[in-house]
Amino acid sequence: MPRIRRGIMRPQMNRRSLLGAGVALGAGAATTAVATPARAQAVDGADAIVDTVVVGAGLAGLAAARKLVAAGKKVLVLEARDRVGGRVHDIGLANGGTIERGGQFTGPTQTRLQALADELGVKTFTGYNTGESIYYTADGTAIRYTGALPPMDNDSYQALGQAIYQLDTLASTVPVDTPWAAPKAEELDGQTFASWIEGNVTNANAKTILHLMSNGALSAESRDISLLWILYYIAVSGNETNPGNLTRLISTLGGARDSRFVGGPYQIATKMAAALGSKVVLKTPVRRIVQSGGSALVVADNLVVSASSVVVALPPTLAGRIVYSPALPATRDQLTQRFPLSSIGKAIAVYDKPFWRDAGLNGQVAALTGTTRSTFDNSPPDGSYGALLAFLDGDQMRAVEDKSDATVKQLILDDLTRYFGSKAATPTEFVLGRWDAEEYTRGGAPGFTPPGVLTRFGTAIRKTSGVIHWAGAETATFWNGHMEGAVRSGEQAAADILKG
Ligand SMILES: Cc1cc2nc3c(=O)[nH]c(=O)nc-3n(C[C@H](O)[C@H](O)[C@H](O)COP(=O)(O)OP(=O)(O)OC[C@H]3O[C@@H](n4cnc5c(N)ncnc54)[C@H](O)[C@@H]3O)c2cc1C
What we know:
Elements: E1 3-5, E2 8-10, H1 15-23, H2 37-40, E3 48-55, H3 59-70, E4 75-78, E5 90-92, E6 98-100, H4 111-120, E7 124-126, E8 132-136, E9 142-145, H5 154-171, H6 185-189, H7 193-200, H8 204-218, H9 227-235, H10 246-250, E10 259-261, H11 266-276, E11 280-281, E12 286-292, E13 295-300, E14 303-313, H12 316-319, E15 323-325, H13 330-337, E16 344-351, E17 361-367, E18 374-377, E19 386-393, H14 395-399, H15 405-420, E20 429-434, H16 454-457, E21 468-471, H17 483-499
Helix pairs in contact: 3-11, 3-17, 4-17, 5-8, 5-9, 7-8
Flavin-adenine dinucleotide binds near residues 55, 61 and 79.
């Protein structure tokens, strides 16, 4: 039976099992940040005392821990899953390759992620972009095209260009660190992206593409997202010297989906974790954080740790599921009640060769019908086998919630066959990531805010609560919601702690 001390359900745990948990990563680290039990148990029943506990071993948490450890701090990273990486996860294929289940693309201006990858020896390569894309209209007509935008008549192009210009212009008024302080924040946050499209764009083709951009860039329906949030998301698609713009956010070549990591981005997480060694403890979900007297007790399922500071590096909704004592300020809690992750699924169909390339296709589809409406060529850099990436965004992901993996697979293969021909029907391997269903993610690529949230509760995104610092891709400024944002947010939280 667990012993109860000072109101905390505390499991039996000793130093040996604590170290065992860290060693489960297999990193073979020689040192540990954990204090001896004799000393630790003198403090509020903790198993260990460290300077900082990091909650979550995604890119944000690992980047924070890496920086703190480099500065000489004693750190423990508590991770709920049996692996690190969070929304970044690659898996080995039977054909010897590696495929990205989660985050994968990077591009220009994502400087912190690329610097980190360089330090860790993980290289990038430009994604396959040779040949034509396909646009499937609502009546099922397939139109092949080159360039960033599907083919349209001149009026439609002009209307779309005008709308993109308007969005970029509005986005340029949104401060990347305080979007709620934009000059027209009230008006912009009082409507959805969909209502802006319907109210400002008259051309039907342009409207259709703008709604589709919402699915493509955020995996979310335009009716769900605040206009201010999407403008913010555009504004942060850059860095300190290159202002964000919509074209960079949605593009492959030269944009957010320009490049991939050779061997996959999961290596960035596993290499950081390996360097941290036994400071990363897996299978240890944090349930409660108790603050008193300028320090905190972090209570996990199988461990209690005392720390001078805590970095919670989780998506906002999951951060809101931890119990805080004393209770967090109302604004912070109300924010996490209103900051969903998008609905996203990601499937990879693997083939002996990238056969679509022979037909002059680059593997990219934008479709207005189907279970998957967005595909990419996800083959390795040498094209030694073929892989098609199929996204399930927003409503398409919600529509398959009750369907079995086998049924979802068939729906996706039916779509791929429609797009690329009969060879697409028989992949050699098939990988399906249902991120909404994963207990320790529960959604997708980025979070977003509905109307009225940024202006009323946004100030709580990064505001520390006592000794708790908030990190994670959704707390970032530049490249919020992306791997770059995750790394930046973790490094920023660490820098704030080191500043004192
Ligand atoms: C399908 C998909 C495709 C994507 N594509 C791209 C892309 O191409 N390019 C790009 O830049 N980004 C992409 N992203 C987004 C990117 O992966 C994320 O923004 C980034 O990885 C988030 O990192 P993070 O550390 O902030 O959060 P997470 O990766 O979510 O890490 C949080 C960690 O906390 C753990 N955790 C949760 N609850 C607890 C708890 N109570 N106690 C302890 N640990 C807990 C989780 O297990 C997880 O490991 C994609 C995401 C998905 C899902």
